[in-house]
Amino acid sequence: MSEQPNPKDYYADTAYKPAKRVAWDEANPGRQRKNGYCLGWQRRTQDNGTKEEYGYNNISISLTWEARRAETGGINDDVFNNMKVRYDQQSIMPPNFKTIANIIFTMMAIGKGGMFLSIFVLAVSFVLISIMAIFNGRIKDSFLAIIGMAELTLPIALILLLLWKGCELLTKKHPTVLGARKGPLWQLNRQNGFFTIYNPKRAWEERLVAPIYEFDAYLEISPDTQGSPTYSLMLFHPETGLRQKLDAQFPPTNMPGELVAAWQFIQRYMDVSQPLPDVPALEIHRHKDPTTAASDKRKGRNPRYWRDMSEAEVEKIQEEKYQKNIRLR
């Protein structure tokens, strides 16, 4: 517990508390707005997160990053600048992946979507051919037709399944293969309350550093390849007109509730009057944050709550969270 600092010494005066947003909101009623669905700010932040935030693999990823940090013998920001990624009690700075990562993620999405589509087509064909067989009495011909459809569809579905799961395994077991650009896209800092937007063309050049409470959160909607609505979480700074999508940490999805949960996660993470979100990857850092350490001590929280669980137990909680999130609006 020697790493635990005094709250007055640890948090900057600019650190976020909900009362600051309330005051800013009242002082800026006529601020610039964006088209899209604007998400609200909470006076008491919720302990929530997306399905991915509760992933079991986040435990090992967090331990790996912490081990790399320890190998350098320091905890200053230069360590994270070299790693170009951060996810701890002080800051969230997601990796800015190279083009190869986008290709792999696209292949994963094609594999997953194509596999389910293939199975759906086969199931519908089976039902339709069976109905036709009942009415025309051509059972043998219908059976052969179903076999023919299966011979055509199942190999395609298998290939797409291997593509999906192969890419997914690659990203989990060997995340370094994705590569990262020289600088990040954005950063949330709990300690000082700032949200930083970086210049994507000039590594580490800051385009904007502003208190998180000065941003409005929006869900942006765009069609996917099938024409279905896809949602992205975006922060907009009314005073400067700058906007930043948060896709690097919270990927676009057709489930808007997941991004509402992401917005709840961000607010809770930045709110120093509340403990950190209780998600697997942040567990090894909870004792370093004064508010969180005090809360955990008061509640008697098991410091290894997530790490002592089996993968199946974590996945059960993850799925329960997801089912609640998709109903959020």
UniProtKB/TrEMBL annotation:
Residues 282-308 are annotated as: Disordered. It comes from the Bacteria. Keywords: Membrane, Transmembrane, Transmembrane helix. The keyword Transmembrane applies. The chain crosses the membrane at residues 115-137, 143-164. This is Uncharacterized protein.
